[in-house]
Amino acid sequence: MKFGIVFFPTVGPADKSARQYFDEALRLVDLAEELGFDHVKMVEHYFFPYGGYSPDPVTFLAAAAGRTKRVRLGTSATIPAFQHPVKLAGKLAMLDNISGGRVDAAFGRAFLPDEFKAFGIPIDESKDRFVEGVQAIKRLWSEEDVVFEGRFHQFGPVTLLPRPVQQPHPPVFVTTARSAESCAEAGRAGHHLQSVPNVMATEELQNRLGIYRAEWAASGRSPGTEQIHFSYPCVVAEDGEEARGKGRYDDERNTAAIRDAVASWADTRSDAYPGYEKLVEATKNSHFEQKLEQKKLLVGSPEQVGAQLEQIAEWFGDDITISLGVHSGHLSFEDAATSMRLMAERVIPKLKAGRA
């Protein structure tokens, strides 16, 4: 198991200024580098406290690149539907050069109706735009004199500069939340997988991983070479009850943020997002204790979180990578730093020793 951190701000100006949030986040990047974490990631969202402080993860990751030497830098994820592929490919290639070849490029479809409306993109086109965008970006990274004739974009001949440091291109991840078919398509295409266990039952996620791994192997790729990243909110403290109290508060604020962001699904329907109209009701039935019991959160003392991770490894395999959501912005910088130090010094070494 590898471990990194992911930033998913769920605060707005009434809670904390963006300047303060990013100052704290970049100090935590320094700590991730110091403590030996594998990666740092940042999401892409707009307008709402639910991720809205991060409309461009590449900007944040460029700042992170300038103060680190080792840790990998990941989008979690960036949205091809909202940018021209030449622009997005160029930005990520530039980041790969600035960082010395440390970029992990995760792409997602997006799912908030208000974001599509603001960009003037029909939400029903999201999948087709995603597939076309990723295809175009991979070609721009790995080929010269690219001529592209897609449904949404036509260009060429184009030779992208700068060329990525990583050849033929940075690792490509697909971020999927619910769709089994998206997992299958990712495996067939040779894309790595990024997901959030919080949004589905354990059995559903196990099924999707089985599909993904089977398609990866069936496409002729060596089993075990795929990368699977899961994101978990994480609060660790010496005292388990203290961690639970802070974890409960953080989870309640995060749930309130997503509830506001998905509100427009109450009167939005799309064949591209079957069942998403149920999201509003799902946020009303989200309970901290239930999620903790189901191992959808990593909250507790070092010993408790270690036990939670042992169970997660039993369910999904000990070759997965865990992205720790340590700083949504509702808890203090010190709380996030404590979680990271306890993970690095008390939890991760015991997990590795137990599986040696």
UniProtKB/TrEMBL annotation:
InterPro entries with a match to the protein in the record: Bact_Lucif_Oxidored, Luciferase-like_dom, Luciferase-like_sf
Entry annotated with the keyword Nuclease: no
Oxidoreductase among keywords: yes
UniProt xrefs under Pfam families: Bac_luciferase (PF00296)
Residue ranges annotated for the Luciferase-like domain, each copy included: 1-317
Domain of life: Bacteria
Keywords: Monooxygenase, Oxidoreductase
PANTHER family: BLR5498 PROTEIN, LUCIFERASE-LIKE MONOOXYGENASE
Protein name: LLM class flavin-dependent oxidoreductase
